[in-house]
Amino acid sequence: MSASVAILLLTVLVSLIAFSDRRVFDALAFEPFVVAARKDHHRFLTHALVHADWPHLLVNMFVLHGFAPFVEGYLTGLTPLPGSWLLVLLYASAAVVACIPGYRRHRHDPGYRAVGASGAVSAVLFAHILIMPTAKVGLFLLPIGLPSAVFGVLYLIYEGTMHRRGGDNVAHDAHLMGAIHGVLFMVVLRPSLVPAFFGAITDLLPG
Q1: pTM of the model
Q2: Beta strands in the chain (DSSP E)
């Protein structure tokens, strides 16, 4: 079984259990106040296994299924480590990194909590964008395809705008941190992706 499939199945399984058992949800959710008070550091990672509701879970798993297999295949042979290990490392480390802004801002707020794999999934998405900047990416409900680099720019603009606006109960900073982490993770493994990315973007420009 590939790491992509294993992550997806594990996330769906744990999320389904948490939907019906609030104790599981409460034990795995990211709560900065609880992390600081009880040293429950596992929450930096386990929050990515539970979701707020079915749409939240389905969107994250749809994106993961769409991009993780390619990234896992690309990582295979990139280093002496198996590609499956590297994908798990990318995903897990992104889940942790995505929580850092929330932890800093809310560690004294007992009412704050966050769940979902969005930060980790964003890392996988942006790893794919860096590798394949000209690949077409479809938008939900719209029958069009954009070059993935263009989609990535629009994504970052949207997430940055919504983060500054606030008030929608979504951790947009986690999405941004995950995206940045995904790019940096790939650049560390293969720095040549950077000039290749900009070369591909140049080819997209008119003239």
Answers
A1: 0.93
A2: 136-139, 142-147
